[in-house]
Design goal:
- The protein has 261 residues and is an alpha+beta fold.
- It folds into 2 domains: 117 residues, 2,3-Dihydroxybiphenyl 1,2-Dioxygenase, domain 1; 115 residues, 2,3-Dihydroxybiphenyl 1,2-Dioxygenase, domain 1.
- Helices cover 17% and strands 47% of the residues.
- It contains 4 helices and 16 strands.
- The strands form 2 sheets. Strands 2-3-4-1-5-8-7-6 form an 8-stranded mixed sheet, with helices on one face. It has an 8-stranded mixed sheet with strand order 10-11-12-9-13-16-15-14, covered by helices on one side.
């Protein structure tokens, strides 16, 4: 489904900050069949927009680990808002942390980077010329965002207050799973970090839809990715897996039961 806009409170963009942008470009274009459009950034490395059918689905930029607030090899996710400055002020009232204050991205839009009270980072996007993702829920496009957190109760309160989301929690094999909704439409999920997962900090995981989860896992590992969570079925949802790309960025893939190829 092609999207011409992303309503406030919905996840609207994902971008990879990579310590090896050239290798990441080769990996993801092969895995997902993405095209690439380069946007010059002065003396810095270009900003790369990934596309399907010439429609933007994600982006990539080179990260210098020495830069302030740098988080290399990390898929960052954005939530659409009407007013970035107002949302940042509200997040601070809710005990969120302002990592990068609001600033304009030329005429594309206005953004900020925040961390929730447990430390999970996410970005805000107030659209100008660029609405964000233009395709979703199709193979090779964004289809889900999932929060791994140390305190689901406080995280739920934070995000629902900030974005007006509603939450519904159900029992799953790994424990309670919370789904977030915007105007009745699912926008993301949340699960508590488990002790057996090791020293994993709270963070958002980005999922991309695929036509066949097992084939995508095989191709990803052939390209140098590490399989973190083997392919498994979630009843009435689909079949998913987690991978780390060759530079270490974690992402999810899923064949959705409701998916249209």
């Amino acid at each position: 489904m092609d999207e011409q806009s992303n309503p406030p409170g919905s996840f609207c963009w994902v971008e990879l900050g990579s310590s090896n942008a050239a290798a990441a470009r080769a990996f993801y274009t092969d895995l997902f069949g993405w095209s690439v459009t380069e946007t010059p950034m002065g003396e810095a490395h270009p900003y790369l927009r990934f596309g399907l059918r010439s429609l933007d689905v994600a982006a990539l930029y080179q990260v210098d680990p020495g830069q302030p607030n740098a988080t290399p090899d990390f898929w960052g996710t954005y939530v659409s808002v009407d007013d970035v400055d107002a949302a940042v002020a509200r997040a601070a009232e809710l005990e969120g942390t302002v990592v990068v204050p609001p600033f304009d991205v030329m005429t594309s839009g206005r953004m900020a980077v925040l961390a929730d009270p447990q430390g999970a980072r996410f970005s805000l996007w107030q659209a100008g010329d660029h609405c964000g993702v233009m395709v979703r829920d199709e193979p090779g496009s964004l289809c889900w965002n999932e929060l791994l957190t140390s305190d689901p109760g406080k995280a739920q309160e934070f995000y629902c207050e900030l974005f007006g989301w509603e939450a519904m929690t159900a029992d799953m094999p790994i424990g309670p799973y919370t789904s977030f909704f915007r105007a009745g439409t699912p926008v993301g999920g949340m699960v508590k970090l488990q002790a057996g997962w090791g020293d994993v900090p709270p963070h958002w995981v980005v999922y991309f839809a695929v036509a066949d989860c097992d084939e995508a896992v095989q191709r990803g590992t052939e390209l140098g990715a590490e399989l973190i969570v083997p392919a498994m079925d979630v009843p009435e949802v689909g079949r998913f897996a987690w991978l780390r790309d060759p530079a270490g960025a974690l992402f999810g893939i899923i064949r959705l039961d409701s998916q249209t190829d």
